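Extended Data, record NADH flavin oxidoreductase
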Amino acid sequence: MTAYEFLKPLTFPKKGITAKNRITIPPMTEQMAFHDGTVTQDELHYYSLHTGGVGMYITAVANVNDLGKGFEGELSIAHDEDIPGLTRLANAIKQNGTLAIIQIFSAGRMTNSHVLRGHQPVSASAVAAPRAGYETPQALSGAAVEQTVEDFGAAVRRAILAGFDGVELHGANTYLLQQFFSPHSNRRTDEWGGSLENRMRFPVAVVDKAAETIARYADKPFLLGYRLSPEEVETPGITLNDTLALVETLVERPLDYLHVSQNNAWGTPLRDHSDHTIINQAIKRQLGGRLPMIVVGGIKTPAEAEKAAENFDFVALGHESLIEPNWVEKVEADNEDAIRYAVALSDLTELGIQPPFWQMILNVSGGPAGVPVVGETTNDAQSSGE
Ligand SMILES: Cc1cc2nc3c(=O)[nH]c(=O)nc-3n(C[C@H](O)[C@H](O)[C@H](O)COP(=O)(O)O)c2cc1C
């Protein structure tokens, strides 16, 4: 077996929990939960097929309250009634020592009144997302912001009771935590908005509430991660400098890792094309070794994973892990030639990928061109998702 860095175990220093290797599956919404967010057999089957090789598996995002639901088929962690299904999900993932982390969020303004069964979406301020078709949300009152912080805490308690090894707070991809941090979506004039420090107040309050809940309810070490997106393209919008300030604040909080959400792990600033700074390296410099860091984006081959592992702590494989559930096992068995880098539509059932999930993969990937499909035309690929 090649002595890859990414196959070596890594221990989260604050909790003493060890991931058996440094390959992670990042959160990927699979649209397979029931209409009320409870876990389905299809979901359990999908997770059990893809787990076991990687060191850590982060689930699809789960909403912490009902108004936080972003998509149909999304997992819910908003009610105690969700716990039995979530327990089965944690157990399905925890095979062969893989750590099971559940990602939690509120979608904020990135949803609609159809998904919310007639309710208006909520956000930091009444500003619609600058994308076609998005509704203007209702600004949360101060009391509702505080209740949302409590809802995150209650969700963390449910994750502990369900037997997960940790939670990841979804502060990325334009959802509510990011909406509070962003000067685009947060135009508040109270203590939750305005200055950079005030825009960090909600993310920090959620981190602190999560940590407090872990201290109170977990009877064994339990990880707390935070995922962020480094920039927004809008003006006003989050800049890399804003993010470095957020990182500096987060690193002082009781977190166990930082997860940087990007489509290219070696990406440079989107806002300033003359700036060739590698965003992940800038964030790593800011962290200064004080927190482990997960990078993601376009990593598929063992060579690409090794380059990332030589520079960062954990390496996440998104699209590639959908297509190749035995990636780690094939590397460990010196069988790299057998790693699959494209999917045949006839393999989707074997991979546990149901049609709505396939459609989601196509949508998230910018259409059929973003997903390597072999053996059939992209039109066939699209229609199979219906
Ligand atoms: C189908 C699909 C669903 C996703 N759902 C989530 C999600 O629930 N939460 C999240 O933070 N990111 C989500 N992502 C983003 C991935 O975690 C990852 O950052 C992205 O796919 C880039 O990594 P890759 O190039 O290795 O695929 C999703 C991506 C895909 C393809």
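Summary. The first strand starts at residue 10 and ends at 12.
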